[in-house]
Amino acid sequence: MSTFDPTRRQLLKAAAWLPLASACGRLAFAGDVSPPGAAQVSLVVHPERLGRVVSDSLAGFSYETQQLENPAFFSADNHALVRLFRDLSPRGVLRIGGNSSDYTVWTAYRGEVPAQRTHKGGPQRPVLLKPEALHTLAGFLRATGWKLVFGVNLKIGVPAMAVELAQAVRQIVGENLIAIQIGNEANNYEADYGAFDQAWTPYAKAIRDAGVPIAGPDTGANTDWVIEYAKRHAGENVFLSRHYYKEAAPRGSIADLLAGDAGFHAEVEQAMQAADISHRPFRLTEANSYYLGGRDGVSNVFASALWGADFMLAMAQRGVAGVHFHGGTLDSIEASLGRTADASATATDQAARRDAVTSRYSAIAGDATLGFQARPLYYGMQLAQQFAGAQMVAADLDAAGVNLTAYAAMRGHALLIALINKDAGRDATVSLNGLRARGEGRLMRLRAPALDSRSGLVFEEGADAAHAGREVTVDARGRCSVVLPRGSAALLRLDRFV
Ligand code: BDP
Questions:
Q1: Do the strands 440-447 and 488-495 form a parallel or antiparallel pair, or are they unpaired?
Q2: Which of 53, 78, 190, 415 could bridge 195 with an S-S bond, Cβ 3.0-4.6 Å?
Q3: Span 401-413, pLDDT tens digits
């Protein structure tokens, strides 16, 4: 990245305002100066206009089944990975699946498995899943408090093996298994929904007859499949699902990612209608910025944190129960795409080596040998996960043309407001109205030196919620203002709001 990059220069300039920037109400107003040229944004909060209750398990992860080939990866002994999961959420959901789940051979299965035809863009060899990997996975789930959604093959066409694997997962993981999903993105290999349904039905029947819960359809990009599946099968399913990626790498850019995806929001609303009618949660069981492994310099930089926080909250606002960001080691993702990883971990410093062995879009970097660390996306997830269990409330935003989003929710007696300035060029002063007069709380910022920063991120949410970030006070007329530099986000928590 060049230091002559104007975006970076402006961001650094804007960052210089940060020490002054958390003015909110009378305490800090005296010291607050709006950066010259900052757009005047207004947000009116309507706590009486209640929206969706955000799921406890909003933040989730998705990994390839191939990741289980090394039973040491998802293991209670990986303390750093356990901590990263727990710190993100005490009630998260881990989805195991991806392309490699459709190529997985369960080694305890004694029946015939047809020779698998490899194809361009898919795994070149079957994944061999051993019972030991399920045992260590079960330990990892116990250590983290997370639950499991597990994908079995549809593509191979061996329901008997899928049933045996589903039963083994259920037996070994126990109550921590939420559901089995059958087939990964079958829209990529079944001609249409009817063909999928026909192939899926014998699997679903056999797995359900074995007493194991199912979910689906785990389609890649077909909302119409979700709707049709809900009509036919919702009653037999624990939840409904599909995936999301904005585009295929190497297409994509920071500007493209931060522009958002209004078309997808509309699709989610349709899927949610189907989910609501059938009283089933809807989860994005696999999602990330750019498929085909992610885009370097976009999926793994600070921009992905702002995108991830905004994406999760936009989904939560529409009622999506979970967003599972796909990731894992570079070799697991590259294998899922029929490619060989070129993970030249030659760097001497540990952080760079962990980064090198990790897929570009993964929110966590590292492996069982090198240890683990958070990537930028992880911090964005942390911000959004603060809304878990809260109830969304209406907030009317006039963004004055700035690419800025805002979300408000009530949790217990506290009001939460997330402000995300995704604009690379404009700082904003957000005037908040409709707050409780003289309310008090904390303002926690999510920031980094620049949108393309890979490190140096700060999310001021500390373990000690009472002292995280900065104190803020609302004025006597229920107003306060927050200066939000370009390319940064903030979480405002006003305690004893009601
Ligand atoms: C999804 C697949 C997953 C891939 C991912 C990608 O389910 O296995 O790793 O795309 O292309 O469609 O990055």
A1: antiparallel
A2: 190
A3: 999 999 999 999 9
